[in-house]
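Thread: Modeling a multi-component assembly for a lab meeting

Hi all, long-time lurker, first post. My supervisor asked me to bring a structural picture of a complex we are working on to next week's group meeting, and I have zero experience with this. I have the sequence lines for every component (702 residues in total). Could someone generate the structure of the whole assembly? Inputs are pasted exactly as I received them:
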Amino acid sequence: MTVGELYGRLKDKSKWFFMERDIGRLFSALRSSGDFWEVLDLSEVPMLLASWLVGELEREGFVAVVGEEVRLTEKGECFCRENDISRARRLECPWCRGKAVHVEAYMKVLREFKGLSLERPEPLRQYDQGYVTEESTVARVVLMAARGDLEGNAILVLGDDDLAGLALALTGAPKEVVVLDIDERLLDFIEDKAREVGFHNLEARRADFRDPLPEDLVGRFDVFLTDPSESLPALKAFIGRGVVGLKGLGGAGYFGLTRAESSLWKWRELEKILVEDFGMAITDIIHDFNAYLSWGYEREMKAWDYLPVKAEPKGIWYRSCWFRIERVEETHLENVPIEGEIVEDEEMATA
Amino acid sequence: MTVGELYGRLKDKSKWFFMERDIGRLFSALRSSGDFWEVLDLSEVPMLLASWLVGELEREGFVAVVGEEVRLTEKGECFCRENDISRARRLECPWCRGKAVHVEAYMKVLREFKGLSLERPEPLRQYDQGYVTEESTVARVVLMAARGDLEGNAILVLGDDDLAGLALALTGAPKEVVVLDIDERLLDFIEDKAREVGFHNLEARRADFRDPLPEDLVGRFDVFLTDPSESLPALKAFIGRGVVGLKGLGGAGYFGLTRAESSLWKWRELEKILVEDFGMAITDIIHDFNAYLSWGYEREMKAWDYLPVKAEPKGIWYRSCWFRIERVEETHLENVPIEGEIVEDEEMATA
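Re: Modeling a multi-component assembly
Sure thing. I ran the full set together rather than chain by chain. Output:
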């Protein structure tokens, strides 16, 4: 059977955006690993689609679930050979782990940041929290330094379970940092620690991004940073508020986007919004820049019921690509309230 | 004087897209280097704008040209301090040089490729040729392997002074490679060497990208790769022909884009075309992925007359960012002839 034939049999059954190529990607990952979390990570097939697809492939006899593993059957192996599907490989630089930046240039910040973040509040499912490794947060700061977005800059952080505000404070470099979050525990923690390390130009303030950006923050910043939940409305709200906070042309923004919860269809929809509506040029997309620690509430997340194997992840499996955008046209942006629930769409799996 | 005030005095005099931020970028680079080629590289201000701007700054007393160097005067240094402009820094990973991929995984290919490319034909100004380092070409191949765009894939190379076709042949991995170029010397060289290394699924064929893609190549490929001249019409033509060559959804493309010859305004215009018209999601933008060797005809290029210092570059100064795009919607694309000269626009400097 060819990939195209198999796709033809399955395509109308999927609830999600589904390309023929997703089949190749999934088989390719299955040739490299039997650990489903690693298969998700390697394949880059959206999590819910991948879970459903494994079920279909099991029914068709291409894979078998054995204990906690998903394995290719003889029929599955044969399918790979016939269709010239090779093993998925990680070929990222072993030194920077594909981050492309030199985190060691900020070794002192990294060391201090690791110390401080030991006491951070635990993630809450209620706010779709789940934080990245300390290396990821500090790498974001290093990237900002490399792009001229750190020293002497006014920086807005929209949502900060990753404690980027604190890492920024540790560099002592920004002119000011304003951290917005809905979670008072985080705000208190970040403000206290920033003061402890002697950075006094940080303000942590409670905010809900469904509300407009407060007037005193509009048009005030050189740079913003955010890592939203990945429904299109939430992405648009968080990033949109960030853009509203920028001074104007040349203002820069950073945010993360996964393949696990966003199909490339959603990627393109978001890119249209960034470029057309928000007047931004996309200057960087660094693959798998952010690595997320397991957030401890996997069993409660939406995707759990769909998983072909009910085993908890053994290591890092959830990564996001890191975007940098820069404003080149002052398009009109509304700063108005958004009604209703925004952190929900059919591709979201971890909320 | 503030950056804003200086910008106010200069902005109406510029022929090019010019943001306030370009001033900060240029001063920041001038704080790090007096070598104008290095300043171009570090600042990321488009080459012609940067050359003009240095002239204006000299007239205003902020910089002085001393021998072969462009130096900040006391007034210029003072301006930087007052406006909190820090030194530009390279903070790319020292191992992969910011390429993010593990080139050493293909060390054998790199070694053989270096050997073979010693005999390559010299670049011709007539075709706007100028090739990248061997590491850059092989890194492109490694990135393709990492993204599942190499093994068993049918690959189209549109314009190949970088000899990507040959590097692909050395891996032995693609199902087929078709190289199109206007330069017969290159075509003969690539076809001969591919045969020499035992790769028989490579065809090198003469083509002009103003003409439609030949019928037998339409809809035939999984992946394309190109590194066009950076006028918007040329970018659109080369990349557009590549997209026309793809089989359909999930097909991927790779191409380079500089900051030296393309303002972020042009970046955004191109991104609009990619996302809207070509139906692509942009999946990767790797900063300064490609390093170009000096092409030996610097004195003949358009920018030479504009340069504040008439010295030849001492090392690599011209880099491009590397895009990966993937098709997620089959928008209608025309495969029709393009009339007139396409490799010319007001930001182009090296042609």
